[in-house]
Write a structure and sequence with these properties.
Elements (H helix, E strand, L loop, with lengths): L2 H17 L20 H8 L4 H4 L10 H15 L1 H13 L2 E2 L2 E3 L5 E3 L4 H12 L11 H17 L4
Antiparallel strand pairs: 1-2, 2-3
Helix pairs in contact: 1-4, 2-4, 4-5, 5-6
Length: 159
């Protein structure tokens, strides 16, 4: 994964969750899946015109959590159409900044180190990035990552 991809996905995922965008979906989108969790980004991306059935490669992966599945969906969205991703999700966030403070709807302010410059940099990077292939989840890689995280938790090390 390229460095900007991970940042873009986490940035947008966090932004959607904290801005209430997911909560403002239409009532039909609040259906529960068979596993009993809300399809957080699936419906949002579908509403925004993404080919969700193609991008949502992890939805049936029983070894992933709902959030992990949504991260893979987000990653596939940014990989397959970085320009669209930048326009729909990154650009609007830049309007929330006053200096280095991001003002959330609801009045919550978040102090940042970089301010809007980091958002502009991500936006430009995504606008100039070529499309990349869709990623598929891997049970083996997921298990290895989980083992690594458990190992790191015991020692306090990172990386």
């Amino acid at each position: 994964m390229r460095k900007w991809e991970g940042f873009a996905v986490l940035f947008v995922f966090w932004s959607l969750l904290n801005s209430g965008s997911i909560n403002s979906l239409t009532p039909d989108s609040e259906k529960e899946s068979e596993e009993g969790y809300y399809l957080l980004l699936h419906d949002r991306f579908e509403k925004d015109g993404w080919e969700v059935e193609l991008l949502d490669t992890a939805r049936d992966a029983d070894y992933l959590s709902p959030v992990e599945k949504d991260v893979i969906l987000s990653l596939n969205a940014v990989r397959t159409n970085p320009k669209k991703f930048a326009e729909l999700y990154v650009r609007p966030v830049s309007k929330k900044f006053k200096g280095k403070i991001m003002v959330e709807s609801g009045g919550r302010n978040i102090q940042t180190r970089e301010g809007v410059k980091a958002v502009h940099l991500l936006y430009r990077k995504l606008r100039n990035t070529k499309k990349l292939p869709i990623q598929q989840p891997s049970r083996g890689l997921s298990r290895a990552a989980e083992d690594h995280a458990l190992d790191q938790a015991k020692t306090g090390r990172v990386g």
